[in-house]
Amino acid sequence: MSMRRGVRLGVDVGTVRIGVARSDPDGILALPVETLHRADDGTELDRLVAIAHEFTAIEVVVGLPRHLRGSEGVSAKGARRYARRIANALPEVRVCLVDERLSSNQAHHRLRESGVPEREHRAVVDQVAAQVILEQALEEERLGQHAPGAPVAPTTRKNAL
User: Fold this and answer.
1) Residue 83 lies inside a defined structural domain of this protein
2) pLDDT reported for residue 161
3) How far apart are CA 124 and CA 107, in angstroms?
């Protein structure tokens, strides 16, 4: 299988903010897009859906935060729930989870290397973490010749039980 053509979105799910990045249609570059602020009513998901439609995304790659030893905690459960919400909102788009260990550390490192002062990281670090997650997924597809991550299916009556 060759690299699929189409824009992919990378999503870094946090409890306060959600970072969004996108690829170019050829899956070569990953670029920061936006930081969404979590809302009690979930309206940030509407913005994420709008971004997916704006770029005609073929896939949404959601980072799955695992502990260094590979186990999952509360954050991973939250990312899984959010990925399912994305899959329900975008049933025509492939949604998958990819391991994102240390993506936030890599994002802070990149920002420091770029000369961005620490006090300015908060505004963009989630976007850069989403970019790191997306780059890892694109590399996995290039090297493995298969779509990255573990697919997340939309909830149906059958699999909701």
Assistant:
1) yes
2) 45
3) 9
